[in-house]
Design a protein that fits this description.
Layout (H helix, E strand, L loop, with lengths): L7 E3 L2 E3 L15 E3 L2 E4 L3 E4 L7 H12 L6 E4 L4 H4 L2 H7 L4 E5 H10 L9 E4 L4 E3 L4 E6 L9 E5 L4 E3 L16 H13 L3 H11 L6 E3 L10 H12 L5 E9 L4 H15 L5 E5 L5 H10 E11 L2 E2 L1 H12 L5 E8 L6 H9 L5 E10 L8 H12 L1
Parallel strand pairs: 5-6, 6-7, 7-8, 12-13, 14-15, 14-16, 16-18, 18-19
Antiparallel strand pairs: 1-4, 2-3, 4-5, 9-10, 10-11, 11-12, 16-17
The structure holds MU-OXO-diiron (FEO).
Length: about 375
Amino acid sequence: MITITDDIKYIGVDDTDLDLFESQYIIPNGVSYNSYLILDDKVAVMDSVDSRKQEEWFASLSAALDGRTPDYLVVQHMEPDHAGSVAAFVARYPEAKIVASTRAVQMLPQFFEEVDFSNSTIEVKEGDKLSLGKHTLQFFMAPMVHWPEVMVTYDEQAKVLFSADGFGKFGALSADEEWACEARRYYFNICGKYGAQVQALLKKAATLDIECICPLHGPILKENLGYYIGLYDTWSRYDVETEGIFIAYASIHGGTAAAAHKLAEILRAKGAPKVSVADLSRDDMAEAVEDAFRMDRLVVAAASYDGGVFPPMHDFLHHLQIKSYQKRKVGIVENGSWAPCAARVMRSMLETMKDVEIVEPVVTIRSRMKQADIPALEALADALLG
Ligand code: FEO
């Protein structure tokens, strides 16, 4: 059992056999559903876990309780990866009160029609406090980080912030991997749309004396907190983390792929700080989304298809639209064997995004990149580096 302080125990579980998180994200190293127990005069459980791992969670909870009974279950977030075991908890500990935001209390019956919550909830609002004895929990609303009912919880005595999905990452606790890579992929794909709301939460957090961040996924953060908070600040402002050019291509028969790789070669030869290339048909879409946000310049290269753009590129640009992609320079390369039309569609999708500048020239190749196409790719590279 991981001990956070003498009174706060980790009682979460790793999930290493889930095929896709939220039915869409690959998780090569699994994911953790974090839950915590605060043992004081009163006993509080901080969030439950996905029902997939309910039995393991109850075993951990029961061991950490050591014969005591929970007085409260604090539900910071109603998404089923955390609140999935609330009904089972209520059945096991009927005397415990559920502490949650008004929106979360409204959502409880949506998920658990069979449970009567009428006498078992305590609704809390911004700044409300709940004394456990030595520990007093203070609640701060964090709407849209990542659902509207989300709140975070500060324990002043322990200087711990329970941050809900904030500062979470993919990867089970048992995985030995650096934080930023999977935290970034998690952030942009799950909270990316809500930069303004994350900024609002960071401003609240800045007023608190925090020595430890306990998120609902991934490791407990105890050291170098400025590093993690700094990255969250960069990401939620949609600022550039890494100077460089990300080339995302969608190629049917390899012609567009060859042009994309040639452009990468030209950019590297011209001294680009960093160039990375992704095949949108085969590489992880969530990682492509992450890389687009991470770098300051993007090139989209795609084949024309059925009077529009090849679907993997359409999917990618749709992801960028819904995640509020913004403040970047974007180059366009299209391919078409008889009626090139991919650039028109890509441009129209990019033009819906805030402060996205299309870098000219837009390059059109016909079926296969030829020697005659190189000057246009060189010109695009110069414009991207200019
Ligand atoms: Fe980890 Fe938004 O749930």
